[in-house]
Amino acid sequence: MSFISDWTTIESYLEPIMPLLHDVEVTNIMANPDGKIFYEKRGHKYRAEGVEFSDVDKSVCLQNLARMAGQDINDGNPSLTVRMPDGGRLAGVSPRVVRGGHKITIRRFPKDPFTLSQLEEFNSFPHEVGTLLRNELRNASNLMIVGGTNSGKTTLLNALCSELPDYLRLEVIEDISELNITKPDVSCWQALEGTDSPFTIRDCLKQVLRHNPNRIIMGEMRGGEAYDFLQALNSGHSGCMSTIHARSAELALMRLSHLVLQANTGLPYVAIQQSISAALDTVVFQTYDEVTGSREIDHIIRVDGYDENKHSFLTTDLYRRTSFHRLKVASSSHHVSQPVPDRQMAANA
Question: How many independent structural domains does the chain possess?
Answer without folding.
Answer: 2
